[in-house]
Amino acid sequence: MSHSEGGRVAVALGLGIASLVVAFLALLAALRGSAVGAAPAVADTLTAADRIEIQELLHRYMFVLDSCPDHANGQDYAALYTDDGEFHSQDIQFGVKVTGRQALAELAAGAPDGCGPIRRRGATNQVHINVAPIVVSSPEGARGISYLLMIDGPGHEIYWNGWYQDVYAKTSNGWRFKSRLHVGGNAVGVPVPLAAARGLWEREPTAEGSRSLIGKSPDRPEALASDPLNWLLGVNAPAGSR
User: Fold this and answer.
1) What is the CATH number that goes with domain 48-233?
2) pLDDT for 94 beyond 50
């Protein structure tokens, strides 16, 4: 075989192998898309600028929520949502669900007559920290998940409190929360008495911290929540979760 013939054979073999690799990857993608419970894929329409703006929305949320008097007594928090935006906490003990700017502002303030003690910088300030956000395109605009770390008051108790499941919409003022669901407490595996104590501390903060309130609120167990990443990707929850 001549040198030129050998070269042509090598090229042909290379092209054949490349075709097989492409076909194999396409097969894997097809199998993944047809997995049981998987939702149809949504084309990624988010630009780099969109992702940066949504990331800043998440960051701004923490600063605005944790310092109510500096941010128009909850009004700046409400402005992070669409006009019909919704916040929902699934907590069976102290869960809430509110819709609309005024209700969101009142929720963020934490007190009927202004900013509550956990929403003010100081000894009983509760701090929210979003961790590891993932954002994908969705029919609504975008969806995202992120873990939630919290720091409670004078004892500076740092703990993991589940995650957020977000739906974002792009408005004339930029990206905003269409809805934000907090999944935490016993639904993510926190022991029932501790979850109840933490919820009670948010409403009756004490200098001793939330653990001092264990046993002072009725225990109400919850079913374990479904995986947030599966929610984000549109995969159905397995039996036994919600």
Assistant:
1) 3.10.450.50
2) yes
